[in-house]
From TrEMBL:
ATP binds at K120, E204, H239. Residues 4-457 form the Biotin carboxylation domain. This is Pyruvate carboxylase. The active site is at R296. Catalyzes a 2-step reaction, involving the ATP-dependent carboxylation of the covalently attached biotin in the first step and the transfer of the carboxyl group to pyruvate in the second. Residues 124-321 form the ATP-grasp domain. It comes from Thermohalobacter berrensis.
Amino acid sequence: MPKKFKRVLVANRGEIAIRVFRACQELGIRTVAIYSNEDKCSLFRTKADEAYLIGKNKDPIEAYLSIDEIIDLAVKKGVDAIHPGYGFLSENPEFARKCEEAGIEFIGPTHEMMEKLGDKIKSKIVAKKVGVPTIPGVEKPITSEEEAIEFARHCGYPVMLKAAAGGGGRGMRIVKSENDLIKEFRSAKSEAKKAFGIDDIFIEKYLEKPKHIEVQILGDKYGNIVHLFERDCSIQRRHQKIIEYTPAISLTEEKRQAICNDAIKIAKAVDYRGAGTVEFLVDAQGNHYFIEMNPRIQVEHTITEMVTGIDIVQSQILVAEGYSLNSPQIGIKSQDSIETRGYSIQCRITTEDPSLNFAPDTGKIDIYRTGSGFGIRLDGGNGFTGSIISPYYDSLLVKTISWSRTFDDAIRKAIRAIKEHTIMGVKTNADFLINILNHEQFKKGECDTRFIADNPDLFD
Ligand code: ADP
């Protein structure tokens, strides 16, 4: 029997906290925010029914990583479930386990599932077991330069060194020669330790100009798993996504089905539940390779919602309450009942200065006016006239999402909406986004993950 949640705490901040509060409010659930000292004046905390300061004596990031303090607060306030958002504790099996031990539902997969997918090495092994292609690479963390050299000699340069626990485009190095490999190995290891607390690194073949295609997965507690089709997230800067769209117009229908079916195979291998994303790279010859599975909601879930009409965040909550995918509450009768309609594009407007190599800009926003109109959705964080952009957190200001019947129309709408934004007082990447959207290669859906690096004219 499903158990309705009365109160949900969001262990996160900014736009994703607001996104989850909205989903809860629509489901009739009371919302609880947590905020750090630095977020005392942030918008998101005012969007919840209740808000509590955490990590009083901790630094701005550590505050949101205070597992015991957050769970104690949740117990004290009679919270039924915790939504972790993305980043912070969202992929931390210890947090999921401790929630469970405290009798609080973690809105996401179980800690056992997280452990199985664990890091990038473990999840590649899961993929291999079920016959999904992976990028040639080692199957264990590498412990010495010799191991790295041996692999690279065997598979040929360039290769990529990756932190097993890496995320957000960090902890990756492209290595073009043996000399560089020797140099990079140690520093990659110590950097991984510093950034992720774990110094496991591995090595794999570097694909020269792949596309990043990922598949949205949704599973319930009864073994039902569906995919909500794919997203093209190839527009990246330093391995970080900037613009995402769906459907991926460069894929043939056959390829699209093959990738989605492989995503399902991986999710089924771990009995996945909740929302998750299976990521692939597709090389210039059209071969696809699994790279990792993210066991959480992603920044770009919005575009899938726009074309499928399925509210992924509400579905996560309903699954955690115990509803099956085909219940009237979630309403997904079967895989075949899921269809996509039209095209959707998400542009991440960030408070970064493209003329200063995208250095984060901070300070007071003097004027904040956003675009709107038919086919435009905005998922915002802390943007309003008079708000302060602090240096402590990521620089995502507002996600501008367009939807239309054709890809061309969706592009035109996105450009129109971004041009309607007036944001003064802090620099943004708005013009840079428009340059990408206007590019012929983008319009044809041809961009690969090297597109921004290969086109310096986009910065003009
Ligand atoms: P993160 O978890 O930090 O997001 P991913 O493993 O998902 O890291 O990779 C992020 C991006 O890095 C990919 O979308 C792609 O652009 C690039 N990348 C990762 N692995 C490879 C590879 N083997 N060859 C070429 N590019 C890669």
